[in-house]
């Protein structure tokens, strides 16, 4: 803001200076105009004098011509009249003297006028040159001033535009800050209210909790570490799974490490059997025999590391409480006794590794002896690293037997030292790999090197490389998970500052099992519930679908009404059926009475014949052709097929046929009626759903129209603001353009006056030349 105000002050000062310069130039132009007017007046006077003189010269020239003509005419006459001429010659001589005097006066006057005209012309040329030089300087100054004015106006406009943009940005920023301040005030008020409510709520809860604790709790078991150790910690399934995952990865790394150690010790034993003395050709020294015997027992010391780790890995499940990181370290490097036994094995073979018989051989060169000494020092360092690891692991395992043996705060430093020891083990294995590869290269160049020795050296090198890779993986793995190991120390009973004794841990695990069994007995299957998102989607569907509650209620009401009507119709038709059954029984009795009166033989014959004809019609098509063709009668209740009058049908079959026909027709009509009812109900529900959708669409349309009105109002307001800003800018630009136009007009007027002066001077010079 200060820089902008300073810049505006500088621009205003420059503007004042430019205004003063413009005023001075206007005054100079006015003075030049007055001078030009005076010069113009003097030129006009001189022009009038020149015109009068030229007119007088013309008159004198005409008079001289007349006199010359008269003189030419008088000469021949003088020749003729010599006598008379003597007298007239005197008169002409007098006239000639008069004319000569007059002519001499005119010549002198003309000479004087020529001198005056030459002086005026020289003066005019001098004034014109001065005016032209001054005009050129004024034009250059005006151009410079115009360029400065244009630059300043452009700069002024840019600064104005920049300041206006900054002003708009600052206004927007101030508005946003005001809004944020208002929101912050509202939030602070809400937070204060919430804080007040929470304070009241928490104070009430605190009083209630204190009263409950005082009444119900006999003692605080978290106050004493012995009692707190029996509390079951919160179950953290993620922690258990993470520990199992880490333990699984470590188990894989240690399995690779164990395999590499087994190969290294085994191939070292094979090398002792063939170098420097081959056991197949000659007997080896007693020292190497003892060394080979110890190396042959390496599996009994190395294999228990993998077996113990596998057993402990399988013991970590979701039901256990893995609180101590010692479990991971046991998985990583085996239990304490297995690691101690392997360390004893390394100490047992270390003297044999330091006392190399190869160096005493005559085939051993100085370079090979130096490599052997380096390898013996590396083996010594390797044993020292394992001793350091065993010491740290013994410290970490100390709380499993003595809970107060190591404070929990010291665990981070011990874990850091374990990581450093593992990295040191990796570095030592890299040195062993490098030195052994150099040794193998030198031995391969010996003339006594056999193929068996070369193969054994390659196998030892591959096992050393595998051991180096395994050590590097374990070191990097431990370093990557070191923060998690330190953070996992906080997992355990609440307010616990130390570790749990084994007896307390066993009791705590029993309590955990009991608590899990109790919670499992209390667990009841929850009813299936619809997810919240699905319920919202179903609600939207129900608002605009045919399966809404009102529609379903109306459908149920209509269905109940239809069921009641159908029940009434059912009762009516059951009564009608009973009446028809009674009539049928009466008709059957009457027909039976008639049949009794007729001959029984004819009736039996006809019945046998009809039965034979019907059976033949069913069995064979040829016999069916002998029966007369049936006659169909169509009515509103359907199509009925009957035989001709010549055939006497069976009474019972005819009744069954009519009954089946009516029943089929009733079923068909009821199905059609039900289909029509269901369609009508469906169409009615669809219409209701469409009307609901239409109402919802109308509501959304009204909301959108309101939003559109608000948007249009905002647009019109913004357009008005834009027009006002445009007008202000246009007014400022018009003022500046008017000012520039006025300056251009003054300059153009000055140029026109100068042009007129040039034209007048050119005209005078032409006239003088013509004279």
UniProtKB/TrEMBL annotation:
It is found in: Early endosome. Pfam families: KLRAQ, PPP1R21_C, PPP1R21_helical. Residues 86-95 have a biased composition (Low complexity). Residues 5-103 form the Protein phosphatase 1 regulatory subunit 21 N-terminal domain. Keywords: Coiled coil, Endosome, RNA-binding. Residues 29-63, 128-187, 549-583, 687-728 form a coiled coil. The keyword Coiled coil applies. One of its GO terms (cellular component) is early endosome. InterPro entries: PPP1R21, PPP1R21_C, PPP1R21_N, PPP1R21_six_helix. Residues 75-95, 744-771 are annotated as: Disordered. GO terms for molecular function: RNA binding. PANTHER family: PROTEIN PHOSPHATASE 1 REGULATORY SUBUNIT 21, SMOOTH MUSCLE MYOSIN HEAVY CHAIN-RELATED. This is Protein phosphatase 1 regulatory subunit 21.
């Amino acid at each position: 803001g200060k820089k902008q105000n300073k810049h505006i002050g500088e621009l205003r000062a420059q503007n004042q200076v430019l205004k003063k310069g413009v005023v001075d130039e206007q005054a100079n132009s006015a003075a030049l105009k007055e001078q030009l007017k005076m010069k113009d007046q003097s030129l006009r006077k001189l022009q009038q004098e020149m015109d009068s003189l030229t007119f007088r010269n013309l008159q004198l020239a005409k008079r001289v011509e007349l006199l010359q003509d008269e003189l030419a005419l008088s000469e021949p006459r003088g020749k003729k009249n010599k006598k008379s001429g003597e007298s007239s010659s005197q008169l002409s001589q007098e006239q000639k003297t008069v004319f000569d005097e007059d002519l001499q006066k005119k010549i002198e006057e003309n000479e004087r006028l020529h001198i005056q005209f030459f002086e005026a012309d020289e003066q005019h040329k001098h004034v014109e040159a001065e005016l032209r030089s001054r005009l050129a300087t004024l034009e250059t100054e005006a151009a410079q001033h115009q360029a400065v004015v244009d630059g300043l106006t452009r700069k002024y406009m840019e600064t104005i535009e920049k300041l206006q943009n900054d002003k708009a940005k600052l206004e927007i920023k101030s508005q946003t800050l005001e809004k944020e301040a208002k929101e912050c005030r509202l939030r602070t008020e809400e937070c204060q209210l919430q804080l007040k409510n929470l304070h009241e709520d928490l104070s009430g809860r605190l009083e209630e909790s204190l009263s409950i604790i005082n009444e119900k709790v006999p003692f605080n078991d978290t106050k004493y570490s012995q009692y707190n150790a029996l509390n079951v910690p919160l179950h953290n399934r993620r922690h258990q799974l993470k520990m199992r995952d880490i333990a699984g990865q470590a188990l894989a790394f240690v399995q690779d490490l164990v395999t590499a150690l087994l190969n290294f010790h085994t191939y070292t034993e094979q090398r002792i059997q063939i170098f420097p003395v081959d056991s197949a050709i000659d007997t080896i020294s007693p020292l190497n025999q003892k060394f080979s015997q110890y190396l042959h027992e390496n599996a009994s010391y190395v294999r228990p590391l993998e077996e113990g780790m596998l057993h402990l890995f399988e013991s970590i499940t979701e039901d256990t409480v893995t609180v101590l990181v010692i479990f991971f370290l046991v998985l990583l490097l085996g239990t304490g006794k297995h690691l101690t036994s392997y360390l004893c094995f390394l100490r047992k073979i270390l003297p044999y590794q330091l006392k190399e018989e190869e160096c005493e051989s005559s085939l051993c060169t100085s370079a090979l002896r130096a490599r052997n000494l380096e390898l013996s020092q590396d083996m010594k360092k390797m044993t020292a690293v394992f001793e350091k690891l065993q010491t740290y692991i013994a410290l970490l395992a100390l709380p499993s037997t003595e809970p107060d043996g190591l404070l929990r705060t010291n665990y981070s430093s011990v874990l850091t030292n374990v990581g450093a020891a593992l990295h040191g083990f990796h570095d030592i294995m890299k040195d062993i790999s490098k030195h052994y590869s150099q040794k193998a290269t030198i031995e391969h160049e010996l003339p006594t090197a056999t193929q068996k020795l070369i193969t054994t050296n390659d196998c030892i090198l591959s096992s050393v490389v595998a051991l180096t890779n395994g050590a590097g993986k374990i070191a990097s793995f431990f370093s990557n998970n070191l923060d998690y190991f330190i953070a996992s120390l906080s997992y355990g009973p609440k307010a616990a500052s130390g570790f749990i004794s084994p007896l307390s841990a066993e009791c705590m695990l029993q309590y955990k099992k009991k608590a899990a069994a109790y919670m499992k007995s209390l667990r009841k299957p929850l009813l299936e519930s619809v997810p919240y998102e699905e319920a919202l989607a179903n609600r939207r569907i129900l608002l605009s679908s045919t399966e809404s509650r009102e529609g379903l209620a109306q459908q149920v009401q209509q269905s109940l009404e239809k069921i009641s009507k159908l029940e009434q119709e059912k009762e009516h038709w059951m009564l009608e059926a009973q009446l028809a059954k009674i009539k049928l029984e009466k008709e059957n009795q009457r027909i039976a009475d008639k049949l009794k009166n007729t001959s029984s033989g004819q009736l039996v014959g006809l019945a046998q014949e009809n039965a034979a004809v019907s059976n033949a019609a069913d069995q064979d098509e040829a016999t069916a052709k002998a029966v007369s063709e049936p006659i169909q009668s169509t009515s509103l209740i359907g199509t009925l097929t009957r035989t001709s009058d010549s055939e006497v049908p069976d009474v019972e079959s005819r009744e069954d046929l009519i009954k089946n026909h009516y029943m089929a027709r009733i079923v068909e009509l009821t199905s059609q009626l039900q289909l029509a009812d269901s369609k009508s109900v469906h169409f009615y529900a669809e219409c209701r759903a469409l009307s609901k959708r239409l109402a919802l669409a109308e509501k959304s349309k009204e909301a959108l129209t309101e939003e559109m009105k608000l948007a249009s109002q905002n647009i019109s307001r913004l357009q008005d603001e834009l027009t006002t800003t445009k007008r202000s800018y246009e007014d400022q630009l018009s003022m500046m353009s008017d000012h520039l136009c006025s300056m251009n007009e003054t300059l153009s007027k000055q140029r026109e006056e100068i042009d007129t002066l040039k034209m007048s001077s050119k005209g005078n010079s032409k006239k003088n030349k013509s004279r």
